[in-house]
From TrEMBL:
Name the UniProt record assigns to this protein: YdcF family protein
InterPro entries registered for this protein in UniProt: Cell_Envelope_Assoc, DUF218
Taxonomic lineage: Bacteria, Pseudomonadati, Pseudomonadota, Alphaproteobacteria, Sphingomonadales
Residue ranges of every copy of the DUF218 domain listed in the record: 36-141
Coiled coil: none
Pfam families, per database record: DUF218
Length: 178
């Protein structure tokens, strides 16, 4: 009986991983709703660039870069973005309070509340979007409108496997009250 239960759990895990791997986050449609703000999570290539592009397209009026290393300065970001100093001055906030996805959501929540925003576009990598969306929905609640805008990547097996396990463990931890 125990062997059957373990086999069933292994099968559920494998099927879950397969479903996770083929149903990665997608970029928001071009005609997606505009929001008051954008929050981009650091840690993956193309994320900041896509968020700034959405800001320039008028998809939102403000941008929080959550999880910025405290040593990063606005001048460093201006150099990376190639002459977009005006956006930095008016519209981009560097957030360095968070160190992981859960604290990214908490940092974003505090910033959104301080700014009086209840609509946000979340930008992160396609392979990271499911866990980020889960954490943001938990932190922000149902009253905040969220547009999910994933950055297309080509993740390898290891990236997907690690991220799937983080997602599953986080869900299990909450289920068990940890």
């Amino acid at each position: 009986m125990i062997l059957r239960i373990l086999a069933l759990l292994a099968l559920a895990y494998a099927l879950g991983f397969a479903a996770y791997s083929v149903a990665l986050g997608k970029p928001a449609p071009a005609d997606s709703r505009e929001t008051q703000a954008i929050v981009v999570l650091t840690g993956g290539s193309g994320r900041i660039e896509q968020a700034v592009e959405r800001l320039e397209q008028g998809k939102a009026s403000r941008l929080l870069i959550a999880g910025t290393d405290p040593s990063v300065r606005e001048v460093d970001l201006a150099e990376r973005l190639g002459g977009k100093e005006k956006l930095l001055e008016c519209c981009i906030t560097l957030g360095s309070e968070s160190v992981d996805t859960r604290s990214n959501a908490e940092e974003a929540k505090a910033w959104l509340e301080a700014e009086g925003f209840d609509e946000v576009r979340l930008v992160t990598s396609d392979w990271h979007m499911r866990r980020a969306a889960f954490e943001f929905r938990r932190a922000l609640g149902e009253d905040t409108y969220i547009v999910y805008d994933a950055v297309d990547t080509d993740p390898g097996f290891r990236t997907l496997f690690v991220e799937y396990n983080k997602y599953v463990l986080r869900r299990l931890g909450l289920l068990l009250g940890i």
